[in-house]
Amino acid sequence: MASVDTVNAFSSSSSLPFTDTFYEDRKKYDVYLSFRGSDTRNNITDRLYSTMNQKGIRTFRDDEQYEQGKSVHSELVRAIEDSKIAVIVLSQNYVFSTWCLAELAAIVECME
């Protein structure tokens, strides 16, 4: 799992690991964030999301409105398809969540 120091290093970096062509793509989002909300939403994921948006990186993360345990909503699949890359924030309970694993399967399928 990433540490706060990793996020701080990212946020203080003057050069982004993305080229200009990264932004020329017609995708709606640059990054799709996948994470276990109860583990990371109020700390590392919030910080990562805020930092990327401040740097101009269009980032999608799901809202708490989605019910856990249901199949991945078409909205999430659409967001995954409309993202250039996905960032998986691994945490202790991510791999035990059927919701997260379904989301990860959709990411793998869409990114192939």
Summarize the entry for a quick read:
With 112 residues, this protein is an alpha/beta fold.
The CATH class label is: Alpha Beta
Predict the CATH topology: Rossmann fold
**How big is the Rg?**
14 Å
Q: What overall form do the CA principal axes indicate? A: flat
How do the SSEs run, as a string of H and E?
A: HHEHEHEH
Largest sheet: 3 strands, parallel
Counted by DSSP, the helix tally is 5
Helicity level, as a percent range?
A: 40-55%
- CATH superfamily heading: Toll/interleukin-1 receptor homology (TIR) domain
Distance between the termini: 24 Å
Number of discrete domains: 1
Low-confidence stretches: 1-16
Strand order of the largest sheet: 2-1-3
Q: Average pLDDT across residues?
A: 79
The count of strands amounts to: 3
CATH architecture: 3-Layer(aba) Sandwich
Keywords: Hydrolase, NAD
EC number: 3.2.2.6
Domain TIR: 27-112
GO biological process, one term: signal transduction
Describe this structure in words.
- Strands 2-1-3 form a 3-stranded parallel sheet, sandwiched between helices.
- It has one domain (20-111): Toll/interleukin-1 receptor homology (TIR) domain (Rossmann fold).
- The longest helix has 18 residues, at 37-54.
- The protein has helices spanning 4-12, 20-24, 37-54, 74-81, 98-111, and strands at residues 29-35, 59-60, 83-89.
- 48% of the residues lie in helices and 14% in strands.
- Helix 3 (37-54) links the parallel strand 1 (29-35) and strand 2.
